[in-house]
Amino acid sequence: MRNQTAAKIMTRLVLTLSPDADISDAMHSMLKKKAPEAPVMDRDGNLVGMLSETDCLRVLCSEAFEGTPEGKVSNYMTYLPSRRSRQGPVSATS
């Protein structure tokens, strides 16, 4: 393991999702790729959030109580804090 490089063990083809992607399609893609989480990228290629197994579990629980999951990835993903919110006062982030 000592002679291993990051390039040899890292994932090359990362599954990325759009915030506008259908949540069912996104979960299906994650299952097919065996991806425990996927970055959510906006149209400009900026990372805006992550869709995790926990987020998907929330979708499935919602389905159990409310019916077929509907909506976009943006309805369920975990949003990343913006740079502005990290640099501004704490009161501005809530």
Describe the structure using short key phrases.
94 residues, alpha+beta, CBS-domain, 3-stranded antiparallel β-sheet, 36% helix, disordered C terminus
Describe this structure in words.
- It is globular, with a radius of gyration of 16 Å.
- The model is unreliable at 84-94 (pLDDT under 50).
- The protein has helices spanning 6-9, 23-33, 53-66, 83-87, and strands spanning 37-41, 47-52, 78-79.
- The protein has one domain: CBS-domain.
- The relative contact order is 0.18.
- A three-stranded antiparallel beta sheet has the order 1-2-3.
- Helices cover 36% and strands 14% of the residues.
- The chain is built from four helices and three strands; from the N terminus they run H-H-E-E-H-E-H.
- It is of the alpha+beta class.
SS strand fraction: 5-15%
Name the overall outline.
Answer: globular
Query: If strands are numbered along the chain, what order do they take across the biggest sheet?
Result: 1-2-3
Low-confidence stretches: 84-94
Tell me the count of domains: 1
Counting H and I runs of at least 4 residues, what is the number of helices?
4
Q: In angstroms, what is the radius of gyration?
A: 16 Å
Number of strands: 3
Q: Helix and strand string, N-terminal first?
A: HHEEHEH
The rounded distance between the terminal residues' Cα atoms is 44 Å
How would you name the CATH homologous superfamily? CBS-domain
Structural class: alpha+beta
CATH topology: CBS-domain
**Architecture, according to CATH?**
Roll
CATH class label: Alpha Beta
Sketch the major β-sheet. Answer: 3 strands, antiparallel
What value does the average pLDDT take? 83
Multimerization state: single chain
